[in-house]
Each structure stands twice: as C-alpha cells, then as structure tokens.
Design goal:
The structure is a single chain. The protein is built from eight helices and 27 strands. The protein is an alpha+beta fold and 528 residues long. The longest helix is centred in the N-terminal third of the chain and has 39 residues. The radius of gyration is 33 Å and the shape is elongated.
C-alpha cells in the first residue's frame, strides 16, 4: 500500500470516528432537547409518559418506546383521550428540506400496537380561538411519505348507561404521500394524501338507544370499501323491547354477508360533506322487521316520503346505482294478544336502484326496480320512481304480480283479522300515481274461486257471517284467460305512516273495488 493511500485511509478513519463521536454526542444532545421540550412545552392538560427515547441523528430517526398520552379536559380531571402503544417510530427526517424549503419532510411514521380510548362526553366546552390561531401559524408544511398504524384498537365511550359508542380491533392503516399545509386545513380529513388503505376487525357501533351495528371485517383499499358480516340488530329481546316502549316502533334484525361501495369519495364542499360512489353492491342480505301494535300508541309524527328524505339530507349524496341480490325481507305484525304475529315474506332475486342522489337536477329520477318472489312462490316485479326535486313528492309505482294462492296469505291475515281466504289470483297489474297527500291506483286482476272464511276464537268457521261476507264479493273475475277485472280508485295518505303503509292502502282500496263493487270487464292486455 502506498503512503498516499495509507494517509487517505487514516483521514477517512479519523473522519468516520469523529462523525461517530459527534453522532453520539448529537444523539445525546437531541435526546435531551426532545425530553426537555416534551417536559416544558406540553400543555398542563396533556400528560406524556414513555420508557425510553432513541435518537439516530445521522438518519434523522426517533424511536419512542412504550409511549402513553393522556389528554384531559382543560381545567378538569376528566380524561378526554388516552393513547398507549408499544413503539412510535419517526424515520428519516430530512434536515435539508427543513433548512432549504421550510418543509418538515419525514420518510415514515409507525405506530405499533396503538390503543386509543376516547370519551365523547368529555369535550372541551369552549375553545381558545386565539391559541388555536397561534398554533396554526407555527405549523410549517409537513410531508410524510408513509404513515403506518399496526395492530391498533380503539374504543369511544359516550357516557351513557351503554357507554361504548364505537369499538374496533386488529386495525391496520397505511397512508402514503401525506401533505399538511394551509390548503389542506379545510378538507374533511385535514391533510392531502395519495393512497389510504384500512383494515379492521370486530367493529361495533351503537346507532341508537335500541340498535347496534356489528361488522366482522372492514377493508378499504383502492377507493373500495368492503364490509363483511354486517349485522344491524336490536340489543333487546322482543319482550324486553316492548316493555321499554310507550309508542309503536319496529324491531330490526338485518344482516348482509357482503356490502361493497365502489369508487368511494368523501370530501367537503363549502360547508357540506360530500359522499360519492358509482356503485353499492349488497349480497345475501336478510331483513326481519317486527312490530307489536297491541296496546301501544302510534307514533303520530309526520313521516317524510323517501324523495323528501333524500332531498333534505345534511350532506351532498351521489350514488349512481345500488345492486341487491339473493336477499329477503320478512315483515311480521302482532295485533291481538291471543294470536301470533302475521307474517309477510319477500325474496329479492335482483334489485337495482339508480340515481340515489340530491345533486342531480330535474328531470332526473330515482328509479327502484325489483324482481322477486312474494310469500311462497308468487313472482312479482316492481318499478318505483320519483324526482327528489319535486316538492310535491310525486311518484309512480308500477307492479305486476303472478299467480297467488290466496291460502298463502293466511299466515298474515289469520293472526291479524281472524279470517282465511281461498281461491287463486292468477295475475295482478297495477299503476299508482301519487304525491305526498293523494294517489290514484289503476288495478287489473284475473282471479277465480275466491272465498272469505271468518273464524271464531277457536279457529272455527263462522258460517252465517262467512256466508254474508261472500254474498258481496265477486268469486271470479270472468271467463278464464280472457277477462280481467279492472278498477280505478283513490287513496288518501295518513301522513303519520310510512310510504309502505301508503302503498298498502292503495292496494287494499284497489282490491276492494275489484272484488266488491261492480266493474266493467275488459279484455286481458299487458300494462306497460
């Protein structure tokens, strides 16, 4: 080795040793500075504890072992937020960007085994506007290449008797290319980012004093939100629930195997939250709805039609389409103590909704099309449409129902009316045009051998009353396959009841006209 090379190696060695020594002292100095800063500058209502801080000045990395943060309500001993974690790593802080570009640039931030507890009822009653402005002025532009949260869990308490409002477990969050600056402060999420991926298990959300939502798994990836094992259910048994109520209210048990929201976009426009998606897909959903009307007062509040509900949402909603497949609905209603609830069932083979939105202008319409099975094996199709911008809440509902054995309706009619029906409705077509107050239904039916049987408490036929009832009804619509019974009538809406009560009132009035009053016979023709 030449003398020159030896000198060069010695110089390099000295420089490296000097750097290591300087780094050691720099690490110690920076660590002390950070500890002093944390001790002296953190507000009194925030308590920070940690086991150790490790600093690598050459790479600009900081690692905090087992940190915990307790944030209290100002001027109070009430805890608002509590965070604990196994480790916090801030990796590769760029000094160059800070010195030259006045930007804090961090390559990565990692939270490991983060546990968060938040008390929603322990909110600060007032905020110090001047201090918040001061703090915002001190913030520089911050860029974070990657933020990872691993194996996190969170609980939000609301301070009521059932105090857990939200909880989730085994949560992983990955966000890339985060930028916090003046332009991002007004965003719904107060920073800009390129991509965000979230996965979580065992999600719980208390939606009301009576119902909760549970999810087995949530995944948000590539702007697609997928929910597995959705369950919306009343937390009480039916008996307990009814003992708590003073007015009638539905009992819900709704499940969905999978719910997918594609191309989800959340944002903020002026002062409004924006929710956009091109498609929501729901597969294998089952809804069981029960109402006990025995000895319970009705809820007499005015009920909005769905057009008004969408129109008055507190956010800007744009859902291009909704798809529902392989699903079912069960509605049961109890009216008499001595009888079980009457039951209606619908199997949804395929359903689609377009333009669920309060951002589309007129004359764009929201359209719901359903293809399914009613009761045991009666096929039906429905086409329901409305313009949310129409302040009269005008709508159109077109339905076609196939062959219905009337005895299939006994599971609903007998418990509620103490009656049975026999016969067969071969086909039913109807069109309803209505608004918030009034509607007109045109209904056309072909039926045969219709008979009503009124029952006593022992479920035996009341012969005299049944005979009288059958005198006033048409038992057949006309010659088989050639004639329909056609009727047109009106319905007045009870504003204290739902749209589906309004729909049922139309159908009942139409059936009464067809079965009880004299009508002109018309040749069978398809209703478009």
């Amino acid at each position: 080795m030449t003398k020159r090379k030896r000198i060069l190696l010695i110089i390099i060695g000295i420089v490296l040793i000097a750097l290591l020594i300087l780094s050691f002292y720099a690490n110690s100095i920076i660590k002390n500075k950070i500890e002093t800063l944390l001790k002296e500058k953190i507000p009194e209502h925030i308590e920070l504890l940690y086991k150790d801080i490790a600093v690598q000045s050459l790479t600009g990395s900081i690692s905090v072992k087992e940190p915990s943060i307790i944030i209290k309500v100002k001027d109070s001993e009430h805890i608002q937020t509590q965070l604990t974690m196994k480790k916090l790593v801030v990796g590769n802080v760029s000094y160059w960007d800070y010195l030259i570009n006045d930007q804090i640039h961090i390559e990565k931030i990692e939270f490991k085994d983060l546990e968060t507890i938040y008390f929603k009822n322990h909110l600060n009653k007032a905020k110090d506007a001047s201090s918040s402005k001061k703090e915002s002025k001190l913030l520089s532009s911050i860029k974070i290449d990657k933020l990872n949260i691993e194996n996190a869990s969170a609980i939000v308490y609301d301070g009521t008797k059932d105090s857990i409002l939200v909880s989730l477990k085994n949560t992983t969050i990955s966000i890339k290319d985060i930028v916090l600056d003046e332009s991002s402060k007004s965003n719904l999420i107060p920073f800009n980012y390129k991509t965000i991926n979230i996965a979580a298990d065992s999600i719980f959300y208390k939606t009301s004093n009576y119902e909760n939502i549970n999810l087995n798994h949530l995944l948000f990836e590539d702007q697609t939100l997928t929910l597995h094992g959705f369950h919306y259910k009343n937390k009480y048994s039916k008996k307990e629930y009814e003992s708590l109520l003073t007015i009638q209210r539905d009992y819900y048990d709704v499940t969905a195997e999978k719910l997918i929201i594609n191309e989800l976009a959340l944002g903020k426009e002026n002062d409004s939250v924006v929710f956009k998606t091109n498609l929501i897909s729901i597969d294998k959903a089952n809804a069981a709805i029960y109402r006990d009307k025995f000895e319970k007062k009705e809820d007499l509040r005015i009920k909005k039609l769905y057009s008004k509900v969408i129109r008055e949402l507190p956010l800007k909603l744009t859902v291009d389409s909704v798809s529902v497949k392989n699903s079912s609905i069960e509605y049961s209603e109890k009216l008499l103590r001595e009888y079980q609830a009457g039951l209606l069932t619908i199997k949804i083979i395929d359903a689609g909704i377009t333009n669920v939105s309060n951002t589309y202008p007129s004359p764009e319409r929201t359209v719901i099309i359903v293809d399914g099975i009613f009761m045991k094996n009666t096929p039906f199709t429905a086409n329901w449409s409305f313009d949310i911008n129409n302040n009269d809440d005008q709508f159109k509902f077109i339905g076609k129902v196939g062959k219905l054995e009337l005895s299939d309706m006994d599971v609903f009619l007998t418990p509620l009316l103490n009656a049975e029906v026999k016969g067969e409705v071969i086909e039913t077509n109807f069109t309803i045009n209505g608004n918030f107050d009034q509607s007109v239904i045109n209904i056309s039916q072909e039926y045969k051998d219709v008979e009503v049987i009124l029952l006593n408490k022992k479920k035996k036929k009341k012969k005299l009353l049944s005979t009288v009832a059958n005198v006033v009804i048409h038992h057949n619509s006309g010659k088989k396959g050639t004639l329909f019974h056609n009727g047109t009538t009106q319905a007045t809406r009870d504003h204290t009841k739902s749209f589906f009560n309004y729909l049922a009132r139309n159908l009942i009035n139409g059936v009464k006209v067809n079965f009880i009053k004299k009508n002109n016979y018309v040749k069978k023709e398809k209703i478009n």
